[in-house]
What we know:
The protein is built from 13 helices and 24 strands. The chain is of the alpha+beta class. Keywords: ATP-binding, Cell membrane, Kinase, Membrane, Nucleotide-binding, Phosphoprotein, Transferase, Transmembrane, Transmembrane helix.
Amino acid sequence: xxxxxxxxxxxxxxxxxxxxxxxxxxxxxxxxxxxxxxxxxxxxxxxxxxxxxxxxxxxxxxxxxxxxxxxxxxxxxxxxxxxxxxxxxxxxxxxxxxxxxxxxxxxxxxxxxxxxxxxxxxxxxxxxxxxxxxxxxxxxxxxxxxxxxxxxxxxxxxxxxxxxxxxxxxxxxxxxxxxxxxxxxxxxxxxxxxxxxxxxxxxxxxxxxxxxxxxxxxxxxxxxxxxxxxxxxxxxxxxxxxxxxxxxxxxxxxxxxxxxxxxxxxxxxxxxxxxxxxxxxxxxxxxxxxxxxxxxxxxxxxxxxxxxxxxxxxxxxxxxxxxxxxxxxxxxxxxxxxxxxxxxxxxxxxxxxxxxxxxxxxxxxxxxxxxxxxxxxxxxxxxxxxxxxxxxxxxxxxxxxxxxxxxxxxxxxxxxxxxxxxxxxxxxxxxxxxxxxxxxxxxxxxxxxxxxxxxxxxxxxxxxxxxxxxxxxxxxxxxxxxxxxxxxxxxxxxxxxxxxxxxxxxxxxxxxxxxxxxxxxxxxxxxxxxxxxxxxxxxxxxxxxxxxxxxxxxxxxxxxxxxxxxxxxxxxxxxxxxxxxxxxxxxxxxxxxxxxxxxxxxxxxxxxxxxxxxxxxxxxxxxxxxxxxxxxxxxxxxxxxxxxxxxxxxxxxxxxxxxxxxxxxxxxxxxx
Length: 672
């Protein structure tokens, strides 16, 4: 885990403070909201009791039909043109075969019925009407009950049978035939507010059976529906009781809207709302209670099918919250039961906006929470930024430390933050001191070969001269064996010192070399031809480009590097193997000399160290057993120095499928 992430996680602990404040605010908001819900439920209950005392009694478990006011200019002529603004009565069970519209005024009920029946069977006389296609209207109850059977044989005034013949309700209207059936328009005179009614369609099929379907009752419902005028006594009572900036709706026992009154100070819907304020957004996101759908409380609904409504119809008070068109306001809806003589026959729904008390208080609380969150976020950003700077400084020091050791073995002790006065500065200065000591030790190792060759040269010369003099003295045979061994050891040691001295001279020669222009292909060709005599049974292949390669450098040094590479390749190539010398131009226009040979592959761990001083992969034990001079690993080191003198580099790799090894020197040329 990075340092920035750790500091950021530590900064998150500061979130405990706004979290605790948020919990307190949330509990306070819940108490305020519950208090407003309780106050609104109490107000709705008081209004419900007043409505029970002043308004007509709701029917017990009966279906109510809300009847619209009479449209302007209505003519009873059998045409449906005047009924375009009147909604269909939805409580019909005949599907699309019949359509019913009702309207009412003081003392009269107006109706429009349209029936699709292409196979209508007409009665031969009114006395046989009930056995054929016809309509029936059943209205009123008790002494005010009257039944009408309607069935015209031709268009014109309604023809019907009334039972009883004389009663309070009177019927008149017009019958019209249509291409798909028939329609009629009627007026039922009498007091129609809160009266039971039923309308039936009688259809005789081809088998002579009469099927009866209601226009105002659900299929299987045996109870007659009741007419309720939207401008009736219940609506007038609601208008008198509704408080300002409040809406009331009176519901029947099945959720039908019987009457409604009042208005809210905010709109129900609004298009193109402005973006909400920050405090309101925080309140809606963190504190607001679950909101019901606004469309479930649409003012034009004729039926409310909501959990809170059914809870109120079950005898329990209920409340809910819903959004409005204003982002600053929510609406609280409360539903309470309405009971007569202990029987719940409906519900009263009270709606009121909460901006006056709750939302204004929560706006200040939301700003407090927003300020706390902003403070924590600022602190987190500052800590995260500080961690980023600190991490960047540490990464920079780490990268500089990793790059301190150059590929050629030299040390670069230039590190960042050396002048810083903090802990990172102390760490950088400690690293610089350590690298400086390592660099000094590395320089000492580089000059060790020349120092050893110089210091051991004189003592070794004394030993060799002493052994030469000892050879002229008479020695027993047993002592002569030891003298010969001493001679062999001195010779090998002399060869080692000569090699070390040669390496030191080569370093000085490379630094003092004078560059000159020459043709590189000719130098490589001359070296390769001289190697043929030294190869024995090994095959030497030469690959040169067709064009000449003019080069600016030291040709003697290039030949020395080729000698070292060829000597190294010959030492690892079996007697029946091959050696390939290749001169080419790389895609980046640098010149490459590659010497490849068959034989054992290089160890993976040694490929990057082969060109360092005193590094060798040859078996020293086998060399001593063969009587050869131990290999000090200076040849490839000299190759690297020559390539660097020509602003290039040296590298080695195994051939594909471990077929051998290839050493490459890449050259750019010396500076003029």
